[in-house]
Design brief:
Blueprint: H1 6-21, E1 41-55, E2 75-89, E3 94-101, E4 114-124, E5 127-134, H2 156-163, E6 170-181, E7 184-193, E8 209-219, E9 224-235, E10 238-252, E11 257-269, H3 271-276, E12 290-303, E13 311-322, E14 332-344, E15 349-360, E16 372-382
Antiparallel strand pairs: 1-2, 1-16, 2-3, 3-4, 4-5, 5-6, 6-7, 7-8, 8-9, 9-10, 10-11, 11-12, 12-13, 13-14, 14-15, 15-16
C-alpha cells in the first residue's frame, strides 16, 4: 500500500479542506430567527469503575506476570477509572473538552491523569477541526468511550497500537466530518500527531505520524459499516506505517433483542521493538519488526426495562495478537466471555462478571508471555 510522504501530507490536508468546505453550508447552521443562546454552556460528566480480580493460574499474578519464585499477588481490588469530564461550549461552533482520570494518581502521575484536553471548531457537519490531546480515529474502538465498552476492556491490539502512537490519547491536529457518497453515508478523519503518547512536554523527534480513517455505511437496515485505516510517519529518522480494516453491525431482531458485532484487524511497524534491539545486529529496515492483530466481538443485548433492571448483555471476544510475527513470533490468543447487568439506562450503572483466558504459543518464565486464567467482577457508574 502506498502512503503519503510527510512533504505531501500538507497539500493532502489542503485539498481535503477545499473539497469538503466547498460544500454548501448545512441548513442546521443557518437560522437567523433562532433565539440568542448564552455562552459558555458547561457540562460535567464522570465515570467510576472498579474491579475485583482473581488469578487462577499458578505463579501468575493478576497482571499476567509469571513469578518463578512463587511470589506475586493473585487477587486484588482495584479502581480502574475515576474520570471527570468538563465540556465547555464557548460559541455555536467552538467547544473545549477536558477529561482526567483521577485513579491514575495511584501510579506515578507523570504522563498520566490528563487524558483529553482539546479544542474543537465545527464549520458544519462536513468539517470540524480538533487540536490538542485527543484520540485520533484509527479503528472502531476510537469511536466510543470506555464506559460503554462491550467487553472487559480495550482489545490487546488497541493497547499496543496506542504505544506505537496510532491509537489512544495523542497530541496533534485532526479534521473530521460526515458526508454522503450518493445515498451512502460516509465519515472521514485525517490526523497528524506527535506519536509519543499523552502529556508529553515535547515530541521525542522531528517526525510526525499521519493517519486517515474512512467509514462507509453499507447497510442502514443492519447498521453495517466498513472502516479503512491507513497511516504513515517517521520515528527517529525511520519510516513507519500502519493499516487496518474493520466491520461493525447492529442488528435489532425486535424492540428487546439486538446483536452488536465488531471485527477488526490491524498491522503496523513495531518501531518500539526495533529501537529496543541492539543497533549493531538489528536489520536496517524497521519493517522487519511487524505487529499484527485481530479480534471479533459479538454482543447480545436484551432490554428488560424493569423498574430495577434495565437490560442484560452477553459477549465473548476472541483476540489474536503477535507483536513480532516476522522475527520472533509468539502469538497471544485471548478469549474474554462477559455477562453484564445494566441497572440504569445508557450504562448508568452496571455490574459485569467474566473471565480472561490468555494462551501463548511459547511460554516464557518471569514475563507476561505466560498462560493465564483471570476471573473478574466489575462495577461501574456513569454520571
Amino acid at each position: 500500500m502506498a502512503f503519503l510522504t510527510q512533504k505531501a501530507a500538507l497539500p493532502f490536508f489542503l485539498i481535503l479542506f477545499s473539497i469538503v468546505y466547498a460544500q454548501k453550508p448545512d441548513s442546521l447552521y443557518i437560522n437567523p430567527e433562532k433565539e440568542e443562546v448564552k455562552y459558555p454552556q458547561l457540562q460535567i460528566k464522570g465515570l467510576f469503575q472498579a474491579r475485583y480480580l482473581v488469578g487462577m493460574s499458578k505463579d501468575v499474578d493478576v497482571n499476567g506476570l509469571h513469578h518463578s519464585d512463587h511470589s506475586g499477588t493473585d487477587n486484588n481490588f482495584m479502581i480502574k477509572y475515576m474520570r471527570v469530564q468538563l465540556r465547555a461550549q464557548i460559541s455555536k461552533r467552538t467547544e473545549v473538552v477536558v477529561l482526567a482520570n483521577l485513579a491514575d494518581f495511584k501510579n506515578d502521575p507523570k504522563s498520566r491523569v490528563l487524558e483529553n484536553a482539546y479544542l474543537k471548531y465545527t464549520f458544519n457537519p462536513k468539517l470540524a477541526f480538533t487540536a490538542g490531546q485527543f484520540r485520533p480515529w484509527f479503528g472502531i474502538e476510537e469511536t466510543y468511550p470506555i464506559d460503554i465498552i462491550k467487553s472487559l476492556d480495550w482489545s490487546n491490539q488497541y493497547t499496543e497500537f496506542g504505544k506505537l502512537g496510532w491509537t489512544s490519547f495523542q497530541i496533534g491536529l485532526s479534521a473530521t466530518g460526515q458526508l454522503k457518497l450518493g445515498e451512502m453515508p460516509f465519515q472521514y478523519a485525517v490526523s497528524v500527531v506527535n506519536g509519543n503518547g499523552k502529556n508529553q512536554i515535547n515530541d521525542n523527534d522531528n517526525g510526525k505520524q499521519y493517519s486517515t480513517r474512512l467509514v462507509f455505511g453499507l447497510s442502514e437496515k443492519y447498521n453495517l459499516n466498513l472502516g479503512l485505516n491507513g497511516g504513515y510517519g517517521e520515528v527517529l529518522g525511520k519510516k513507519v506505517y500502519a493499516v487496518g480494516l474493520d466491520l461493525s453491525s447492529l442488528i435489532k431482531f425486535d424492540p428487546k433483542w439486538s446483536l452488536d458485532m465488531q471485527l477488526e484487524a490491524k498491522q503496523a511497524t513495531n518501531h518500539l521493538l526495533y529501537f529496543a534491539a541492539d543497533p549493531e545486529t538489528r536489520p536496517q529496515n524497521p519493517d522487519e519488526y511487524l505487529i499484527r492483530g485481530a479480534y471479533f466481538l459479538p454482543n447480545i443485548r436484551y432490554e428488560i426495562n424493569h423498574r430495577n433492571l434495565s437490560a442484560f448483555e452477553l459477549s465473548c471476544r476472541y483476540e489474536y495478537l503477535d507483536t513480532n510475527f516476522r522475527l520472533n513470533s509468539n502469538p497471544r490468543q485471548t478469549i474474554t466471555p462477559m455477562f453484564g447487568l445494566e441497572f440504569l439506562k445508557n450504562y448508568g450503572a452496571r455490574i459485569q462478571l467474566g473471565m480472561q483466558l490468555d494462551r501463548y504459543k511459547y511460554q516464557v518464565e518471569n514475563t507476561n508471555q505466560y498462560n493465564n486464567n483471570l476471573y473478574i467482577i466489575q462495577v461501574q457508574s456513569r454520571f
